[in-house]
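Annual report, structural modelling task.

Input specification for the 8-iodo-guanine complex:
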Amino acid sequence: MNNPLKDSTRNPFDVAAEAAAVIAEKTGVAKHDIALTLGSGWAAAADLIGETIATFDATEVPGFNPPAVAGHSSSIRSIRLPDGRHALVLPRSHWYEGHGIRSVVHGVRTAAAAGVKIMILTNGCGGLNPELKPGTAVLIRDHISLIFKSPIEGANFVDLTDAYSPRLRDIARTVDPSLTEGVYVQFTGPHYETPAEVMMAKAMGGDLVGMSTAVETIAARESKLEVLGLSLMTNLAAGIQKSPLSHAEVLEAGREAEGRISKLLAEIIAKL
Ligand code: 8IG
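The model returned the following structure:
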């Protein structure tokens, strides 16, 4: 693997700038306005928000790794929104893939280098509230990162008050006033939690458990991006749901919800 992010003498922001330059060249779009990472269940949104200008494999862009998981994508897509703004769909690299924290946040940093101001992070996750039905979309209000590893390099004391933009959450709620909000607790994965860990996450004030978004949000705030976080609760977390968790079940719940939540996301993007 010849990923420049693995060279500790390289500055990850320089690699992100190189990635953004390659994206500008491949898309013919000098500056993108919005970026999206589409997690389990959200992929169809890319087809609804506008006209696709270019799609290419992320591995053609410096710093991006091939995908590790069935159901995840590794393409980069540039979409022209009806109002003329440009959206960039970027793949996700998870902490559990083992490529290091720089890879996890390279998409976010590349988005910032491409001119993006609004970062939309979506995911599939487990739910801690038994009242919520699998298939429910939830706005992320705040997070707890149990990764205990900051993506920030150097003494940069980034403020995370309102990390998940209250302004963007308000806009999302004008599209669907019934959207609930929750605190997202990030575990390392790839194993799901034990029932005892799920109880811990709940006692800490969590509503959702996942493996991706908190660390990405930290890097997005470092790069001064405004973040909208949206989770699809695909399953109740281990022990809350009585049956064992399976990736197949997660994918199935995502497929079932995909049309509905992708339409929701497309309607939100039109208002941002
Ligand atoms: I989809 O129950 C999905 N992702 N940590 N726990 C964690 N991540 C998840 C879960 C879950 N479901």
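The CA atoms of residues 170 and 177 lie 9 Å apart.
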